[in-house]
Amino acid sequence: MRDRSAPGTLDLATGGLLLGYARVSTDAQDLTNQREQLAAVGCSRIFAEKVTGTRRDRPELARLLDHLRPGDVVTVTRLDRLARSTRDLLDIAERIQAAGAGLRSLAEPWADTTSPAGRMVLTVFAGIAEFERELIRERTKHGREAAKARGVKFGPRPTLTPAQIEHARELIDRDGRTVKEAAVLLGVHRSTLYRALERSEEVSRAEARRRGAFIEDALTEADALAAGPDERQEEGQQVAFLDDEGPADPPPFITTTNARKLYDLRPSETVADAAARKARENESLPTK
Predict the structure, then answer these.
(1) Contacting residues for 183 by C-beta, under 8 A, at least 6 apart
(2) Of 5, 25, 85, 204, which one is the catalytic site residue?
(3) Which residue in 4, 69, 159, 212 is a FRET match for 152, CA 20 to 30 A apart?
(4) Angle CA 129–131–133, to nearest 5
(5) Rounded Cα gap, residues 136 and 144, in angstroms
(6) Residue 191 catalytic?
(7) Which of 233, 230, 166, 174 is nearest to 203 (CA)?
(8) 190-197 long-range contacts, CB within 8 A, separation 24+
(9) End-to-end alpha-carbon separation of the chain, Å?
(10) Is 219:255 a contact under the CB 8 Å cutoff?
(11) Tens-digit pLDDT profile for residues 166-195
């Protein structure tokens, strides 16, 4: 803390001490020129450091701000020695003003908060900085909305990829594994796999509605052929297909497994072709 009885050059306008701040970005640079300029205008104490201006944790600047008393004037050779951005400059100027002190730049005479004109200029700067922040927020908002419209998803990356979710379904439906076993094989917690399977099911149903599915869980011939080979129906369930070549009163859905069992479905053969072939074979069988 500062000794109130310590001698020093006083500012004629405010009656407070003139305190200088000097900074260079690297150790290879020299602070001598800044020190000389600050001493020439009467700074009784100079806080100097070698640190990049982009860092917010500058020890000497923190000491200077803690050292301030009402009426003191912080003096810098140029504003870029104090801050590297408008927002940073305004934040530091606000802290200086809160301490009842002023800010003065030797290279920019208009940046003198001890005068009404200087305070007005910084007020205008603050308005411009706020306007820039609003523009950035608006551009960010519109950019996110446009990205969402294109299907871009925000947030953390999903733990399981669509291929892993499909593999988990095969392990559960075809191989008879439990969800816990499938989760262990994929290296995730079973609750994670449960959520992924539920989300995948919701997406599948939404896609079915978008394509015009008219019966819950109904399968077209193409969907039946694309379905997994381990889909099972309850014993005694009738099997048919939902196309124009099927029976007049078709049941709700058909599965590939039952089609293979009933019609001896052959490779590259459609369900309709297999049914017609099976009918011909049955007709050719001798009657008892």
Answers:
(1) 168, 189, 190, 192, 193
(2) 25
(3) 212
(4) 70
(5) 12
(6) no
(7) 166
(8) 192/159, 192/160, 193/160, 193/168, 196/158, 196/159, 196/160, 196/165, 196/168, 197/165, 197/168, 197/169
(9) 115
(10) yes
(11) 888 888 888 888 888 888 888 888 888 888
